[in-house]
C-alpha cells in the first residue's frame, strides 16, 4: 500500500484511466482538467493523491485551496475523496482523509475543511460541523472543520 501524488507518478496514464472510469462525476471531470493542462491551477499548493495496492489505484483524494462552494479565507480543503466500489468497506476513505490531514500539517496548516453531502461520516474522524449550506449544487451541503493541533 502506498500513496502517490499524480504529478510525481511514474504511471500517469493508469491514474488518468482510474479517474476517467470512476463511477462519480468528479473523477472524469478531474481527468479532463488534467488533460487540459490545468493541474497546477486546480491542485497547486496541495495535490491530487491516489491510494495504490500492488500498483493499482483504489482511491483518490485531494488537498486544494478552494472547493466547489467558495468560502473565502478558509483553506485548505480536503476534497474529492473517492473509493472504487470494489474496494469499499476497507476504511480507505479514512486512510485517505488521515493522509491528507498529514499533508496539510506538512504545509504548515493548523486546520482543514471539508465540504460534503455526507452528514455523519466525518464526525467520527474528529470533524465538527460548522455550517449547513443550502441551495448550491446538491441542495444541502455540510461544512466541516478539524483542528490539526
Structure keywords:
149 residues, alpha+beta, four-stranded antiparallel beta sheet, three-stranded antiparallel beta sheet, 26% helix, globular
Please explain how this structure is put together.
The chain is of the alpha+beta class. Helix content is 26%, strand content 32%. The protein is built from four helices and seven strands, in the order βαααβββαβββ. The chain has helices spanning 12-20, 26-35, 39-43, 92-106; strands at 2-5, 47-53, 56-64, 77-83, 111-116, 128-134, 140-147. The strands form two sheets. It has a four-stranded antiparallel β-sheet, sandwiched between helices. β6 and β7 form a beta hairpin. α1 crosses α2. It is globular and about 40 Å long. The two termini are 27 Å apart. The mean pLDDT is 94.
Strand content: 25-35%
Please give the largest β-sheet: 4 strands, antiparallel
**Order of secondary-structure elements:** EHHHEEEHEEE
| Spatial strand arrangement across the major sheet | 1-2-3-4
Count the DSSP helices: 4
Report the helical percentage. 25-40%
Shape verdict: globular
Distance linking N and C termini = 27 Å
Radius of gyration, Cα only, in angstroms?
15 Å
Oligomer: single chain
What's the mean pLDDT score?
94
Query: Helices and strands: which structural class?
Result: alpha+beta
Number of strands: 7
The low-confidence parts are none
Amino acid at each position: 500500500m502506498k500513496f502517490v501524488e499524480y504529478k510525481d507518478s511514474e504511471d500517469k496514464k493508469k491514474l488518468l484511466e482510474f479517474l476517467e472510469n470512476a463511477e462519480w462525476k468528479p473523477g472524469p471531470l478531474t481527468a479532463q482538467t488534467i488533460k487540459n493542462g490545468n493541474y497546477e491551477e486546480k491542485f497547486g499548493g496541495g495535490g491530487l493523491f491516489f491510494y495504490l495496492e500492488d500498483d493499482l489505484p483504489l482511491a483518490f483524494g485531494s488537498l486544494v485551496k478552494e472547493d466547489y462552494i467558495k468560502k473565502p479565507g478558509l483553506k485548505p480543503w480536503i476534497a474529492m475523496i473517492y473509493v472504487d466500489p470494489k474496494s469499499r468497506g476497507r476504511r480507505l476513505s479514512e486512510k485517505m482523509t488521515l493522509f491528507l490531514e498529514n499533508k496539510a500539517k506538512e504545509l504548515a496548516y493548523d486546520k482543514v475543511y471539508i465540504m460534503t453531502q455526507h452528514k455523519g461520516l466525518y464526525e467520527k474522524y474528529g470533524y465538527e460541523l460548522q455550517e449547513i449550506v443550502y441551495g448550491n449544487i446538491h441542495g444541502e451541503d455540510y461544512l466541516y472543520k478539524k483542528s490539526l493541533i
